[in-house]
User: What shape does this take?
Amino acid sequence: MQGFADIGTLSNLAILFVGTGLGILVGALPGLSSPMAIIVLLPITFTMETLPAFALMVGIYVGTKLGGSFSAILLRTPGTPASACTALDGYPMAIRGEAGLALGYATMSSTIGGLLGWMGAVVAVPVIAGVALHSAPPDIALIGIAGLVMVSAFARGSMVKGFSGVLIGLLVSSVGIDSQDATMRYTFGQTVMESGIPFAAVLVGVFGFAVVFSDIAMTVKGSELLTRDVNLRVPSIGDMVRRWRAWLIGSTYGLGIGAIPGVGADGSTWLSYATVKNQSKDPPPEAFGTGVPEGVITPESSNNATTGGALVPMLTLGIPGDGSTAIMLGAMIMHGLTPGVSLMRDDPHIVYGLLAALLIATLFMFVIAMGAIRSFVFILQRDRNVLFPFILIFATIGAFSSSNSLFPVYVAITFGFVGFLLESRGFPVVTIVLGAILGPIIEYNVRLGLALSGGDWSTFFDTGPRIALVGIIVFLFANEVRGTIRSWRKASSPRPSETA
Amino acid sequence: MTRRKLHKAITAAVLGLAVSVGSAVAADYPNKTIRLIAPYKPGGGSDSITRALGAALEKVSGQAVVVENIPGSSGINGMLELKKAKPDGYTIAMNGTLDVTAAIAFRDKAPFQIGDFTCAGAIFNTPVWILSHKDNGYTDLGDFLEDAKAKPGKLIMGITSKLSPTDFVASTVKGTSGLNFRIVGFGGGGPLKKAILANQVNVGVIISPVLLADVKAGELNALAHAGNLQGIINHPPSRGVKHIRDWGADLDVALVRGVWLPAGVPEEVRAKMEELVKAAVESDGFKEFGMNFGFAPYSESGEKFCGRLSQEVVDLNRTLDKYMKR
Assistant: This one.
């Protein structure tokens, strides 16, 4: 309560409001992300009092999580990595003229996810901190493998093409200095390649550039991409209540996985999406990807729920859950705070103030975003030829600013072409992203787990949770194999048309 | 006037002009925005130090100082950017000596040479230290070594990454003690920090004062260090921690961070930047940052700072040949 009183001054609330609005805007611009926005504003925050400075950062952090989905839905160009999954169903909805619904679902589920994540994080501070601290490499490796098996569902239709995408993603992620024995992999003697191919640039390329390339092809043909008849109806509470499973699973995954350093929102959206899709009866799993509300609700509730999961370990242990919280951690030192176990004891008003700010920012996000839907749809209705240059400019700026150098820009352009070519040949490019996200998590943790156990593989099933995770993987894998065999059998009877 | 005399006169005039332009440049230097490269991702210890230095430099120089993160390749990308920058004193970088010398010592083809840079002085000198979770019951490095003797091949010493400063310390301790414990790289300070806190490694080797708050809180014990811990401001017991030399590992490994300029910067400009860096380090704002960071700022001339480099390359190569695998 004291936290709410501390943050509740008019100026603090105004700063939080501005931060959240700014976050939504930055998130919606392809290539610009929450860590970048926080970094740009960092010098300003040094001149501010501690609590308002962090309120600004928390506002941006929360806002970007939703903002990213706006461009994912309207332009099929996710503004942030954490919103890439939302494009799968959000964009088809927008094409059908249901942009208002899609954005409404995104806003409402982000708010619900943020609120549930907050409640979970506050009620279970010790549990979340425990997950963050005690998640050992073997646990994270198994979660990653389970994720990879789950998302192989994305590859249905054409297994070969889907897995090719995953393999390209894995290949991309294996470039650079090996974290265990410092071997150079696929760097071709180029220093710039030593840190690997920048993932942010791959994402901007595959989603930003490739989308523009493929849409240009369509506009040249004169086809109208989006109907002018845009429905501005936003979903009702009843619509959300009916789809409780989607936001509940999304939020739970976000809270739990957000707390695991290095996995965060980028991973949790896909894992929760795959879970909801695989379990769904109405709509059936096949309908996912064609524009079902569940496909928007799940990842959006998930990525906002990670904010609570990532913030709590940062505040209580000094362990950041993602890039944004890492920067906030650095900013704490500049503000005279000592992050770590002693923060709660020495500066409790900051910890509680920030948790209160997280909740208020989530509510502000709802108010701002609901009001902004109309403006965003208005932008959508512009001629695409006008929008393309802006997407390209922002995508280029985004790629450049990921490391303040030109290399990521070249990477983005290259992957734009690669993505365009693959997509036009029926390869689901989304699987490249999945390979690139999950590949390094699995590799790093499997190898570190083995290094810690002295090469003993039994480390992967020597605790209760690990045995359970192995069980889940075996079950999911068996399920996949069964599904594949079944579809082969079906395919061998009457000749179906290849759906890619 | 003979041809030779004319030639001399022209040379003298050109030289005179060059000198006067040089001093004119130095006289009003700095008179525009200074770009301060941080060769690391935003958010870590080095990034915080760079930003604090940027703020202090801004105050003492009266010019805007913009911090630019150019991460990647263990700090090499940022230094390459500095190397190719115009040597006018308006592009500088903050980095540790070991971060530069390791790149030279460990690569068949070094990305840069010592001569590619010049220095404007040190700002922090923080040694590597060895920490352990309190539940392990080790009070100093000797306790760990005894335990390692009793359980050959079982104990783990965590390091940030292979061929890093923490690896030199771990490999030297292992090599000089002749004991069999495993050295495991975590691919970065963040994951190692977490592993030490979660007691997933028996001991961890990390740059001080990382995890000082947890040492102060009694959650972790500092077992040994490889430099000088007298700069630890607000925790006197940590200053009493012994050097790894006391257990036979005669090696100093400290991250001496300071300000770098590209080679070719006019001496007057370099000297002026040295003055500014010294004033920034001695400013109240930077001292206050040091208090929060946990370590007192450290001042050292550019000449002394750059002078460390050749010896470091020699030391690194010796450690590498003796105790480590390339």
Remarks:
- Residues 111 and 210 of chain B are 29 Å apart (CA to CA).
